[in-house]
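The step that takes the researchers longest sounds almost clerical: writing a folded protein down as plain text. The outcome of that step, for a single protein, is printed below.
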Amino acid sequence: MSSRREQFGAGVAAVAPMLPGVAPFGVIAGLTAVGTGLSAAQAMAMSLVIFAGASQLATLQLVADGAMPAIILLTVFTINLRFSMYSASLAPHFQHLGRRWRLPLAYVLVDQNYALGIHHYRQGKPGAAEFGHWFFLGAGITLWLTWQAATAVGVFMGASVPRDWSLDFAIPLVFMVLLVPTLQDRPHIAAAVTGSVVATLAADMPLHLGIVTGALCGIAAGVWFEYRAEAS
């Protein structure tokens, strides 16, 4: 497997089993965007510019709550910090590429694409070192098209939903679905429980800082439990 076309096709094939899980998430993002008062054009523009499901939903929640722009930016920045680690991990494999390649590859860097891409490189298959970025691009474009199409479905479904039908419940449900599979040990459970309890108790904090406070306390609890586990 050494040609650009073969690598691109392999990326499309590798990501295909993940699409049934991506599509409903995109539909919910579109529905939620319209439910919080955005127009169809604004909702689609948001999806095109951000292209990050967790960040989109967090932004919509904070906008609906009337949070200050600085709080929204800080929250999105915190959520997306993981992409800096993804980028650092992939950088050695992309160092031979110019800016015209790195910019579009950075745009389609999402969780699923990173996992597939780094696994593909680590397998060391023929052609991966030279043309692996085509694999990454194939998977990324497929994810992008699926997300935008699913978001559009949600947007236009939401446009026909009465305004008094609140769709805000979709946001915590989606994050619960994403969270539960990660609760595999005590530090993760401690972080989730502490963060949720603190965020609930701090819901009335000024400047809508309850979510950020809960997140910071959850991280602190997780780190403390992990330290205790390593020390014992």
About this structure: The chain has two domains: 4-158, 183-231. DSSP finds twelve helices and no strands in the chain. Residues 183-231 form one domain.
